[in-house]
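Example record

The entry below shows one chain as it appears in the dataset: sequence first, then structure tokens.
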Amino acid sequence: MKIELAPEPTYLGKKMDLSPTAFGELRVSADIVRDPTALKARIDEDGYLFLPGLLDRSDVLAARDETLRRMSAAGYLDPAYPIAEAIPAPDLKDGFIPQLAAGNQPLQKIAFQGPMMAFYERFLGGPVLHFDFVWLRAKLPGVTDATRPHYDIVFMGRGTKQLFTSWTPLEDVPKEKGGLMILEGSHRLEDVKSTYGELDVDTYCVNREESTDLDSGDRQWKVRVNGGKFAEDALALRESYGLRWLTADYRAGDVLLFGMYTMHASSDNHSRSLRLSSDTRYQLASEPVDERWIGENPPGHGPAGKHGMIC
């Protein structure tokens, strides 16, 4: 089946400003991949490292195949099409599928073995700990599933702040398929870091009615801080700060790495197929770790991960 892509990226159905002052390409850091000093200077400057070809392409595509096989078995794919085409089932509403990462050996291999771990050991300069939880995503086609702008720190800030995300496309992702975007210079927005960047989505007010919902287990997500989003409209956000959205035509094997205070989002998926990717996190093993994301069954955003406070 031929997949028709839109001629240019959009966000929630709105055309993006593709002028040079509003939109650009990620800077490639593959040339310094073995130079920790240069890498640290680059991430301090840019807030991200784009590393094309860091992973073995065949290993990444094997992870995609296994993930799609699991999705098919779980009823997430349309049985009228070959599994490899990743066509979503007509009733699929949510492509967040971390449960399909458990025991997914090809996915575990690219995330927690080989080149990924070797890179982080060089980059961080010591033994590395990774979160056990894997944020596995299958972004839906259409103009409603774009990732809203956010910092990662609000979801995983109880340990070290020297924590890094690897966004790994599990397939080739041209711009029109909704790859990740970095808001250039957003890691230097001190007004955002000192306000929104200090939030924790899993705190709740023990002296308010919401605590009853949490104690009963009815509420699994803390909405007091807007679900963790900094903004709903990535286009208006970019314009308000006068910054650029940066992205790339990604290929299987590429990794986009960024810190906890780098604003990121995604554009719309204009193909007919799901866009598969994983988010994994890494830090020095000697640093404090956020207890929500480690262990055989990480508590995540469930009741066990909540912290009560007086409001």
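Notes for this example: The mean pLDDT is 92. The two ends are 55 Å apart (CA to CA).
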